[in-house]
């Protein structure tokens, strides 16, 4: 009796047909099974463990989306900005009611913008640092140190341009020290910048012998930044606007900004994507220090002095403005526009306290309460979306 047998793998196929492989699915070609290139020259299969070629860009783009284009988050950010504008309008109404003769005057509005300009430049740098997952408590002390160093008699003898350059270099250099201690020394940002706050303030006092240093004759160019007006506004206001514009472009339209969101949102994912997290952190603190140097030039222009008392508690105002503007303290989300609106709210509140003759201690209490409320609202909004 003949035994029935199934087809063999080695049996000949019909003329012109390829041999049949029982281990290969019927709809898969030999080229696909072997992973060899097809006629077009492109491989049909990839190594499963190979990461995508654009993983670096993908992580940066994903980090940027929460602050820009994702639906619910984008609507939340826009609503928060509208809320900040509404708060500003409400404060303006309070000012018109309580001080109708002095609040809405041109001179008072210029004073508000001038005060906001100095702290605002620092706020721009603080926004980058906090979005990147850090914090900088030394900004006020660095501004004081830069102003003192730039107004020593030795520095002033070289002219106003060297004074400006000195202030910028001192601020950026101190920021680099902060960044090095945090990124390569692996110190906690709070501790590293707190140590810099104490050291910078002490060095400023030592250099100035606790005395106020006046800008000498021949260096009036710095003072003219505050006295010269264009379209009714001092030049320093335009410098502040320029810093805000550059900061916005840097954060929203460059690779540096995307990496800042990535590092602040998830440092480990950013590292795995090929971003040098330590170097980027170093650059963030250097940028914050540079903003402190610019602020030092502006406060020298406003006060015609360099002093170790400049910038006292400016770190409080900058951090508060950034938090009120919607930037997460944990990093990964925030906007320059929100920070500036938060700054204007704080500046107007300070102006209203001064116009109504209220005590400075009351201002600090009010600012502290505003910070607590802003953080609680921020936490509640995050919990409601999870």
TrEMBL record:
Name of the protein in its database record: Sugar ABC transporter permease
Main location, first listed in the record: membrane
Organism placement in taxonomy: Bacteria, Bacillati, Actinomycetota, Actinomycetes, Streptosporangiales
One GO molecular-function entry: transmembrane transporter activity
Originating species: Planobispora takensis
Annotated region described as Disordered, given as residue ranges: 1-53
Membrane topology: Multi-pass membrane protein
CDD domains registered for this protein in UniProt: TM_PBP1_transp_AraH_like
Localization: Cell membrane
Keywords: Cell membrane, Membrane, Transmembrane, Transmembrane helix
Highest taxon, organism lineage: Bacteria
Gene Ontology cellular component terms for the protein in this record: plasma membrane
Membrane spanning residue stretches: 79-97, 109-131, 137-154, 161-181, 187-204, 230-251, 282-301, 336-355
Biased composition (Basic and acidic residues): 1-13
């Amino acid at each position: 009796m003949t035994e029935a047998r199934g087809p063999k793998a080695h049996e000949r196929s019909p003329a012109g047909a390829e041999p049949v492989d029982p281990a290969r699915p019927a709809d898969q070609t030999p080229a696909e099974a072997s992973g060899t290139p097809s006629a077009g020259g492109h491989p049909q299969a990839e190594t499963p463990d190979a990461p995508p070629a654009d993983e670096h860009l993908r992580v940066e783009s994903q980090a940027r989306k929460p602050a820009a284009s994702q639906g619910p988050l984008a609507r939340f950010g826009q609503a928060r900005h509208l809320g900040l504008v509404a708060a500003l309008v409400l404060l303006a109404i309070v000012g018109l009611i309580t001080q109708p003769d002095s609040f809405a005057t041109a001179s008072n509005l210029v004073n508000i913008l001038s005060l906001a300009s100095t702290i605002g430049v620092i706020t721009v740098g603080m926004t980058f640092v906090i979005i990147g997952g850090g914090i900088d408590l030394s900004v006020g002390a660095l501004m004081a140190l830069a102003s003192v160093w730039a107004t020593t008699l030795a520095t002033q003898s070289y002219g106003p341009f060297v004074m400006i350059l000195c202030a910028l270099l001192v601020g950026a250099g101190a920021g680099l020290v902060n960044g090095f201690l945090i990124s390569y020394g692996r110190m906690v940002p709070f501790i590293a910048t707190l140590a810099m706050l104490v050291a910078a303030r002490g060095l400023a006092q030592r250099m100035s012998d606790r005395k106020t240093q006046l800008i000498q004759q021949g260096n009036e160019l710095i003072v003219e930044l505050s006295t010269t007006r264009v379209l009714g506004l001092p030049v320093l206001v335009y410098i502040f606007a320029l810093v805000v514009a550059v900061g916005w472009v840097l954060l929203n339209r460059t690779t540096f900004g995307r990496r800042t969101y990535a590092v602040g949102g998830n440092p480990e994912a950013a590292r795995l994507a090929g971003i040098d997290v330590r170097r980027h952190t170093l650059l963030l603190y250097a940028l914050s220090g540079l903003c402190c140097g610019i602020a030092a030039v502006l406060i020298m222009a406003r006060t015609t002095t360099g002093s170790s008392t400049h910038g006292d508690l400016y770190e409080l105002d900058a951090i508060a403005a950034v938090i009120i503007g919607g930037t997460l303290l944990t990093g990964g989300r925030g906007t320059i526009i929100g920070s500036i609106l938060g700054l204007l709210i704080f500046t107007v509140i300070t102006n209203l306290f001064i116009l109504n003759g209220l005590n400075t201690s009351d201002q600090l209490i009010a600012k502290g309460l505003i910070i607590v409320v802003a953080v609680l609202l921020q936490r509640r909004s995050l919990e409601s979306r999870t």
